[in-house]
Amino acid sequence: MTGTYVGVSDTGRPDYRADDGTFLVIPGVKVRDVWPDDAAPDEGPVFSDFYPTLDLDALADDFGAVLVEVEPNGRFRINVPAGPAVVCLLAEAVIGCVEIDLPVSGHLRVSRGEGGFYIE
């Protein structure tokens, strides 16, 4: 699965390709499967104000989680099986997560702006 990561301006300027970023992709789960105590019960499928504890090694061992780096042109490739997944934007911490059903093929558009972190 390929994709493009863009920044969205809240001032009316056009979207722009992000030049870096890291996604945490956890296949086969929903957010509450991974962080049952950290997710608000009424949130989902977009978790914007969400600050779970990260143990990347444990997430990889327990769920097959992978890190995906964004290229300088805003492009990225996710190599996990199609189906349900959680995709989180990482910086110093989790910026937000989205529950998504990854298709077998196609192109994802990931955006981040004043309104939050989204995938379509």
Describe the structure.
The protein has helices at residues 31-34, 56-63, and strands spanning 2-8, 16-17, 22-27, 46-47, 66-69, 75-77, 83-90, 94-102, 107-113, 116-119. By secondary structure, the protein is mainly beta. The strands form two sheets. Strands 1, 2, 6, 9 and 10 form a five-stranded mixed β-sheet that branches. A hairpin with a 2-residue loop joins β9 (107-113) and β10.
Which features does this protein show?
2 helices, mainly beta, 120 residues, five-stranded mixed β-sheet, five-stranded antiparallel β-sheet
Provide a short characterization of the protein structure:
The chain is mostly beta strands and 120 residues long. Helices cover 10% and strands 43% of the residues.
Helix content: 10-25%
Distance between the termini: 12 Å
User: What low-confidence regions span 5 or more consecutive residues with pLDDT below 50?
Assistant: none
Count of extended strands: 10
Alpha-beta content class: mainly beta
Please report which band the strand proportion falls in: under 5%, 5-15%, 15-25%, 25-35%, 35-45% or over 45%: 35-45%
What is Rg? 14 Å
The general outline is globular
Mean pLDDT equals 90
Compressed to H and E, one letter per element, the order equals EEEHEHEEEEEE
| Number of helices, where a helix is a run of at least 4 consecutive DSSP H or I residues | 2
Largest sheet: 5 strands, mixed
